[in-house]
Amino acid sequence: PEEIAYLLELSAALKLKKKMGIKGDLLEGKNIALIFEKPSTRTRCSFTVACVDEGGHPEYLGKNDIQLGKKESVADTARVLERMFDGIEFRGFSHDHVEGLAKYASVPIWNGLTDFDHPTQVLADFLTIQEYLGGLGGVRFVYTGDGRNNMANALMIGAAKMGMDFVILAPKSYSYTDENGKNVAVSLFPEEELTAYCRKIAEETGASITITDDIAAVEEADVIYTDVWVSMGEENNPGMKERVAALKPYQVNMEMLERTGNPDVLFMHCLPAFHGAGLKEEEVTDEVFESK
Q: CB neighbours of 265 closer than 8 A, spacing ≥ 6?
């Protein structure tokens, strides 16, 4: 919790400094590698701009430039890059890859997203909540939608550490028939091991962790948060039609916001979002997305 609080305080200070037009020099003379196995708009831009604003040089390495664990092992990649760069950001599929980079490289490693976690997004979201609500402790935060994706995981870990009342609102599961005619059930709740880990942290911080499929959980929420129903890399997986159907009752719409009973409830989304405007409405309606 102390490290997260420090990072949020530092972020607020750097944000204010940028608004004032004060150029930073914290990364002057530093070279930062940005590894992107997965494409990105916000993560790539934010890391690049932050690096340049503080006097550093960012070097983008896309999926055609570097293939961890394929053309070269994670260990060898880490040892090579640490000789040329002062820090490495990684955005990709395997969480083992970012942990491998941290294990074998002697320079700082930043997780820009994996299939399991997205900690930098959580820091940005928590800074926003602090700005609007004045703090994090005791905030009732409801994440609705796909309860076992990387954002649900990352938010649950962060909320547990910062003493928040955190809720994952999702259908327990959905099922589909595979190409062999077999019925396949897929859970949309987070892994039990991760939930237990977060609840253990919550015992020390005063947080609470609730996993439910009951829409009534949105009542008295301070924040309603959602993410796409089909994550990057899952688009062609079997059963996506059935997943979307199971998630439809958990769409963020005006009825859900009104049910919170909180006229000042915040709606948040990590983006990109499917909300109309030429894109089919899924996890959030255009009315909610464009509301103020």
A: 221, 222, 223, 224, 257
Predicted pLDDT of residue 59: 98
**CATH architecture classification, 2-113:** 3-Layer(aba) Sandwich (3.40)
Domains of the chain, residue spans: 2-113, 121-289
Phi, then psi, of 248 in degrees rounded to 5 = -55, -40
> Is residue 14 exposed (0-12), middle (13-18) or buried (19+ Cβ within 10 Å)?
middle
- Cα 137 to Cα 79: distance, rounded to the nearest angstrom: 40
Report d(CA 43, CA 49) in Å as an integer.
10
* pLDDT band with cut points at 50, 70 and 90 for residue 189: very high
What are the tens digits of pLDDT across the range 128-187? 999 999 999 999 999 999 999 999 999 999 999 999 999 999 999 999 999 899 999 999
**CA 100 – CA 75 distance, rounded (Å):** 7
C-alpha Rg value of the chain to the nearest Å: 20
Helix (H, G, I), strand (E, B) or coil at 279: strand
Answer whether 170's CB lies under 8 Å from 215's CB: no
Is the previous residue joined to 272 through a cis bond, with omega within 30 degrees of 0? yes
Band of residue 277 on the pLDDT scale cut at 50, 70, 90: low
pLDDT for the residue numbered 278: 59
Taking the domain 121-289, which CATH number applies? 3.40.50.1370
Distance CA 192, CA 208 (A): 15
Confidence of residue 279 (pLDDT cuts 50, 70, 90): low
pLDDT at residue 231, rounded to an integer: 81
Handedness of CA 47, 51, 52, 58 (dihedral sign): negative
